[in-house]
Amino acid sequence: MTRDEPGDIALPLRHADDLDPLLTRVGDARIVCIGEASHGTHEYYAWRATLTKRLIQEKGFDLVAVEGDWPDCYEVNRSVVASGDSRPTPEESLANFVRWPTWMWANQDVLDFTRWLREANQTRPEDERVRFYGLDVYSLWESLREVLDYLAEHHPAEMESALTACRCFEPYAEDPQTYAAATRFVPDTCEAEVIDLLSALVDRRRGAVPDADGDPEAAFAAEQNARAVVDAEAYYRAMVRGGPDSWNIRDTHMADTLDQLLAHHDGRRTGRRSKAVVWEHNTHVGDARHTDMRRAGLVNVGQLVRERHGESDCVLVGFGSHRGTVVAAEGWGRPHAVMQVPPARAGSTEELLHASVPYDAALFVFGPTLPEWAAERRDHRAIGVVYRPTAERWGNYVPTVLGRRYDAFLWVDRTTALAPLAGTEGRTDELETWPFGA
To answer: According to its UniProt record, what is one Pfam family this protein matches (predicted)?
Structure first.
């Protein structure tokens, strides 16, 4: 360890070129996970997009995988790989995000990035265009409907397994909480039905059953929707029991989906393996083993990516700020609002950086030898979609060894709220994700 203070190693962050040291750190890594300390901060989204553009242009990354539902994000994917005036446009695809909290993806920063990506893709052959996918697990009914639509169009004679799953869920009126609550008291669940559905789709795509229509992308999307149904069913059953299981099912699903995306797209470009940028909250991106999440029995995407791919093949990037404004809600499913983020808690990482970094925004790239402050455990702020600034003394901080949890860290001293797209307040199907609402 060294005795360097944060201000001694902080690199000024003003322009895209200031990310050069981070691009050097990325090197030939296959996966770069880029976090955010809230789901409603403009600077996090904007710098994340700037870094992602450079990774696409300079490092050959060809997948963007985000903390969003597969069906909604697949529409965004269709919009960014489309040609010319094809539909849907990025505006249309983001306007279709209806699950609360819609502002996570239906916001101006994501719209700007997806417009850029669509335009950039026009210069690429279709099989080399950069894709945009969702990793999350919440889309039980939406994904089930997508599977039904796929089978109806491509394999109508094989719809029975999907219809059986639908009939199992039918009494719960598309309310996952009602289904989950019922499983606490009645041993019968829909687990077997959704596993049978997935098995049928996996067998077909992998050739156990010939696929006459030859549409591998549609078959892959249908399989991923079926995986979302299987893991969502398990997630909702675990959620009503409390504890870490639901969180772990969700993050394991996201890591599994990332691996399936990489495997599916390997070889799409001759002689080159696929490379993914992941956009998620810090609580998913930063390695849980270097936080108190580990003591709570939690795993997360950053940990799983490091364990599965090796630390040399992935880079984890975190964000933080001292104060500012943020878009969040006072309760689960409540309307969003712009809220004040108060100055960071005494003794926190954010207070330390505010006091010692001489720049409005800065980049830290951590190596194997850490300064003492980055190797010490300190509180690190985490704002979810539900946020109550007056309650910060009791929550919103995760004890963290910053230089081990992340490979790099972007600091913005004062941040501003992002701009949700008009008319995207959304509906609520889920309860708050234990324990962070992240």
So the answer is: Erythro_esteras
